[in-house]
């Protein structure tokens, strides 16, 4: 550094006590001055108006365009409990809960306070060469709640990463390479997890993936045929599938676990979306009797939606195969997997679930909502099925009986197989301020996964709105069909 630069640096440093400088770039590329006025609230407020444009320009223009065409390009500025609020102050009922990340509702005060306390305490985290205290505490809590004599917990950041971990551990434990999965499955979009995706659309043009084979959901005979080939490391299954809210008949999971044990394969249960109280029990597998998993995966709402976290809970024998000696103690690891900050959120979330009886509320509100929707099935031709486990519900639509509606159905499906459900999700949002989601590609299913905090008034809000939307949809021609025609002309779903 030359003398002139040193003098400038000294003068600016002395002046910091009197005024706050913006960063200054000197000729020697030295940045000096440090302004302690960072204000995230101000940044959000100043950029809300241009949020969609900025997202389109800098992140994902195709997604931004899709949202704009169907009117989903809202700017949400606040979340509380089961509700969202946009920049105009409008209140929305959130029946999507961040893909199931907010089981305990948004902005939970207990989790917020726990995270503030952690930050205020200047506690250490991610030292890496340590054994973090809260990892052991949360690991113990998860083992107690999940059960099945599972012994070890491996922490990482996301559900997809957890599935990758399970694939890797299963291969090491069994010495086999192939994984099995069920039709309509979704285990994440990283390369290994993608190999177990039930929709071919997600796999197109991504090259060779992990060795895998698919069986029809609930088909024990097909499962045994694949297991008998002798190359299967594990069978991955969601007790309630996220894509479509499908689940096999009672007894399938139990029988599948026994078949896996018989043929030397692991039985891996993905509870990423259907776990954490979603189905009325801590994990959905608890609905099944006489079942023995080798690995259970938890993620999404484990932190209350605040911090990425996932847990792979497994038998000790599996764990020891990977971490087989002292020199292999870190043969598999994750930079953010042992975060005390994330563990704090996880422990606080479990506390909230207990204190607010959210498993019980999920069961009660799920049955209330499900039965009210089922009662509309005979009233509206388009409703083909309503199914649910707790607060994980699907409304499936199918071909109507009347000639006029058959014409409407055929017309819209000829344009695009994925278009029909938009005639329901769009008016639910635009006219009734309810956020919902189409369950998946090539599915005529709307999925409802609201926070487990919803109450009877929220159930009535949704049912009343859905009733009105269906009533309008059964008028052909009508506004709903005109909206679909406009969407089709914009070629949004391509």
Task: Report what the structure shows.
The chain is α/β, with parallel strands linked by helices. The chain folds into three domains: 3-32, no CATH class; 70-104 and 358-489, Alpha-Beta Complex (Aspartate Aminotransferase, domain 1), CATH 3.90.1150; 110-355, Type I PLP-dependent aspartate aminotransferase-like (Major domain) (Aspartate Aminotransferase, domain 2, 3-Layer(aba) Sandwich), CATH 3.40.640.10. Helix content is 41%, strand content 15%. It is built from 19 helices and 17 strands. Strands 6-12-11-10-9-7-8 form a seven-stranded mixed β-sheet, with helices on both faces. A four-stranded mixed β-sheet has the order 3-4-5-15. Strands 13-14-17-16 form a four-stranded antiparallel β-sheet, covered by helices on one side. Strand 1 and strand 2 form a beta hairpin. It is globular. The termini are far apart.
Summarize the structure.
This protein has 494 residues and is of the alpha/beta class. It has helices at residues 3-15, 40-47, 51-58, 61-69, 97-100, 109-120, 133-146, 159-174, 191-194, 200-203, 220-227, 252-262, 316-322, 340-355, 358-374, 403-415, 422-430, 456-473, 479-489; strands spanning 24-25, 31-32, 76-80, 83-86, 91-94, 152-156, 178-182, 212-215, 232-237, 266-270, 295-298, 310-314, 383-389, 392-397, 434-435, 437-438, 445-448. The model is unreliable at 3-33 (pLDDT under 50).
